[in-house]
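Lab notebook page, bench 4
Experiment: in silico fold of construct C2
Operator: M.H.
Input chain length: 284 residues
Purpose: comparison with the prior construct
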Amino acid sequence: MKSTTEHPLAFFDWYLENEIYNDLTEFYIHITEELYLNNTDQIDKVNHTVKVLNIHHDEVASEYITFSFEHSSKSKLKQEVKRAKDFIELGFQKRFSEKKEVRAYAGFLRIKLNGLFSNSACKEFPFLLSYLEQLDSLINQYSKQSTSYSYTPSFVFIAKTPEEQLSKIKTLYKQLNEKPSIISCSLEEFINAFTGKEIDEGINWLITGKNKNYVSKPSLLYFLDELIDNRFLSRTIINDLYKFIRYVFRDHKGNELKNLKQSREAMSENPASKDRIDIIISSL
């Protein structure tokens, strides 16, 4: 069972319920029956350690070596904590502009996490607590930061994982920069603009209308509408879309985009570069 964006604690739900006991059984079998058959000195089934005669490790001066289930589980649990953290961060990132949503999400995660803390596996394997506490600390960090958060109206590209999010943003950037370029900005600025971060200079939108002296704002509106309709951007931004546009985008000369509402009202069904925008969105 793997954790996901929708269920960032799914692995731990599954693992603590039963799978950890399967791993424990495999740990004992591997040490006592495979590696150190007839060389086991002591098995501690309270602390889950096995003391064996040192027959394999010449570099260790001790006559005996002690193996622990805690140590054998460390690599797997560190990896799963990292995955869970990535998914939790992505979940907060999606909701960060809405404090109520942040509080609700944090509350939901705490309920799930409290269930894990009270699981009988945590009593039998106390080392699990340190991993769960890392997740608890991360949840508290984001929920507290949101109360003093200065809202940055940049976009958040929706994806299943942080890795997929970054990959798709880079693909979008590459497509928009194929000649003739639709945008002008650095890759770093573009990534910041679509991961909810602060931006410095913004993204210049280069598509112009019939009058080449003026940028085509309808084409930009269409581009963002398509990202929303294809679920790459959240629909919750619709009411504040013009605020997002003014923060992130500039015209082809680097100036602030104005009169967006009027451009929306006068927008045709076939804005400039519509076909190319459709191809770009469909490639994501």
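Observations: The beta strands are 40-44, 49-53, 64-68, 183-184, 203-205, 249-250. The two ends are 27 Å apart (CA to CA).
Next step: discuss at group meeting.
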